[in-house]
Design goal:
Blueprint: E1 21-22, E2 28-29, H1 40-50, E3 57-58, E4 67-68, H2 81-84, E5 89-90, H3 94-111, E6 114-120, H4 124-144, E7 146-152, H5 164-183, E8 189-192, E9 205-207, E10 212-213, H6 217-224, H7 236-243, H8 256-269, E11 285-289, H9 296-306, E12 309-313, E13 318-321, E14 329-330, H10 338-344, E15 347-350, E16 369-372, H11 381-387, E17 392-394, H12 398-414
Parallel strand pairs: 5-17, 6-7, 6-8, 11-12, 11-15, 15-16, 16-17
Antiparallel strand pairs: 1-2, 3-4, 9-10, 12-13, 13-14
InterPro entries: NAD(P)-bd_dom_sf (IPR036291), THF_DH/CycHdrlase_NAD-bd_dom (IPR020631)
Protein name: Tetrahydrofolate dehydrogenase/cyclohydrolase NAD(P)-binding domain-containing protein
GO biological process, one term: purine nucleobase biosynthetic process
Length: about 425
């Protein structure tokens, strides 16, 4: 039995950092990092983070307690570790993110720095998630020649909708900031963090003569930002170009999360780049468990335009996006279910935010690729790795999402009228 130098892989803290290793009780422990960590230096790094000496300790079956081992029993894992203990192909997308960022760095080094404004006005858990995403953007963009500034609206003390005055003041603040972004020529793009109003209120009139309202205030806010400043591509004009297969000119930007998943699939599932023909997608069936306006729906449209058949699954319906602009079809719930869609699909994209949601492993097609977009795993990773070595699993897309954000910003600047 080989032992990794990271004997405490079951430690609650190092579980975030340790690679895939075999524990001393003979079972695999799978984590998200893929870089090999079998040296004493890496062990010392993990030990400093959680307070345990991982060279001399290992965890027994009972979590949270350590048992001392002799240093002689700890040996370095062999180079052909994966050959000895085969596991599913958990894919690290960092190389793709680095290649996308390199294009942006090359542009900023030759043409000067770019400027992005973040507008952060949501509440509660959405504010926490937006803050984390914003920090990730800040650290990444500093290295890539992009100035990133956040405009924040203070969180409301009153969380109920009874204070109409507070809500109106907030909406007016957002409108003023977006107007300022639209007017300023030194700002290359803006990122508005959604959802701001996840549960209403209903937006104003979209067309008063026809009696058509915006479904939500968020939809109204999306249309306030000029297409030339919309780094996420969420305004109505860009969404029309994405959706309409008859449009000759593709938009310069796409929703970042959807675009990141598309690039990941092109690189790691199809093995092809954007400049390859779309014929290779015609035999692909893809299941997307999410139909949000920022990920699930635009991704389904983009993949269908490339020739794939896409099942779009939401909480109350299943839609089929058919290839080459054919009519959208609503599936019969009596004959079509989540399990039947995943059994048919070459790719499953999971973006359900609930920690309790799990895709049944038994319903995954042989040789399929799973892309987890949610913050929490939408599959039982331990079961997947143990029982389905044929499945390729991509646990995170965050690095590529941030990289596509910078790529969108660069494209906005390149496509601006009068830009060199």
């Amino acid at each position: 039995m080989f032992f990794s130098t990271l004997q405490a892989a079951r430690c609650p803290y190092t579980a975030r950092y340790a690679p895939n290793i075999r524990c001393t009780d003979g079972r695999f422990r799978f984590f998200r990092s893929l870089a090999p960590a079998t040296t004493a230096k890496t062990t010392a790094l993990f030990a400093s983070r959680c307070g345990h000496n991982h060279t001399n300790y290992r965890h027994p079956r009972r979590r949270g307690h350590c048992r001392r081992l002799s240093t002689e029993s700890v040996v370095t894992a062999p180079a052909d570790w994966n050959a000895l203990y085969p596991s599913p192909s958990a894919i690290d997308v960092s190389p793709l993110a680095c290649s996308l960022r390199a294009r942006v760095r090359e542009y900023t080094s030759e043409n000067g720095r770019l400027k992005l404004i973040g507008v952060l006005a949501n509440e509660g858990s959405h504010r926490i998630n937006s803050d984390l995403y914003s920090e990730r953007i800040k650290h990444t963009f500093e290295e890539d020649g992009i100035d990133y500034e956040v405009w924040r609206y203070p969180e409301l003390e009153s969380r109920d909708n009874g204070s109409d005055k507070e809500q109106q003041a907030k909406i007016q603040w957002i409108k003023d900031r977006i107007h300022r972004i639209n007017e300023r020529t030194d700002i290359d793009g803006a990122l508005v963090f959604y959802p701001i109003y996840p549960f209403g209120p209903k937006g104003p009139y979209k067309n008063k003569l026809m009696g058509v309202y915006y479904k939500t205030q968020d939809d109204h806010i999306r249309d306030l930002l000029l297409p030339g400043k919309d780094v996420e591509g969420l305004c109505r004009n860009k969404w029309f170009k994405i959706r309409d297969s008859k449009q000759k000119n593709s938009p310069a930007t796409y929703p970042c999360t959807a675009l990141s998943v598309l690039k990941i699939l092109e690189e790691y599932h199809m093995g092809r780049r954007n400049n390859q023909p779309n014929d290779c997608w015609k035999d692909q069936t893809i299941c997307i468990i999410n139909r949000s306006e920022i990920m699930g729906r635009p991704l389904a449209v983009m993949l269908a335009k490339k020739g794939a058949t896409v099942y779009s699954i939401d909480i109350d319906s299943i839609l089929q996006f058919r290839p080459d602009g054919k009519r959208l079809r609503r599936c019969n719930p009596a004959t079509t279910s989540l399990e039947s869609c995943t059994r048919e699909s070459n790719v499953v994209v999971a973006g359900v935010p609930q920690a309790s949601f799990r895709i049944p492993i038994s319903s995954i097609r042989e040789g399929a690729t799973i892309v987890n977009v949610a913050e929490v795993p939408n599959v039982c990773e331990a079961t997947l790795f143990r029982e389905r070595p044929d499945v390729r699993y991509i646990p995170q897309v965050g690095k590529v999402t941030v990289a596509t954000l910078s790529l969108n910003l660069m494209n906005l600047k390149v496509n601006r009228p009068g830009s060199s």
